Amino acid sequence: MNPAPALTPGPSPLREEGGEMNMPFELLRTENLLKGRAFAIRRDTLKTPDGRETKFDIIEHGGSVIIVPLDEEGNLLFVRQYRHAAGQDLLELPAGTLDEGERPEVCAAREIREETGFAAGKLEKLGEFYLAPGYSTEFMVVYLATELTHDPLEADADEFISLERIPVEQAFTLAERGEMPDAKSLAALLLAKRYL
Q1: The CATH number of 10-61 is which of 3.30.70, 2.60.120, 2.30.30, 2.20.25?
Q2: What's the confidence (pLDDT) of residue 19?
Q3: What percent of the chain stands above pLDDT 70?
């Protein structure tokens, strides 16, 4: 469900504010560097609009979801888990990577059960965004989950997660104070704000 187009050599237009095509980059070649469990890395060589060549290392990712679970008491369900790249436990909204060919809403329904132990009676798509478009194709879809019922799935073997229920107002306070340094959770909260 990643809208990033497959790259083939040739011109690639950029858009200006008004939507008109301008200043094309041209893909000259692509080199596959690594194929990992969750993503691949490629190096693209491009010709810039002024004729120079430049290289971009790109993480190819199949897409992901993030869920904003809201219980009947007005709490949001967060997870706290160790993030090795950050070197610390982070407070995050539940999220996960799409399996190959999986629809985002199916992934969201699975991930909320795996990470929180609750199923969503209702999933509502709130928006979508590129997580880090400077170097990654990862495209994330945001869902609001309500009508929660206890219905756990077994968590992934490498995930050690604790569940935290946080009142909506307190969650926004934590975000504003910098106590939730997770970009996807901050973006999802922003998209969900008018629904909470």
Answers
A1: 2.30.30
A2: 54
A3: 86
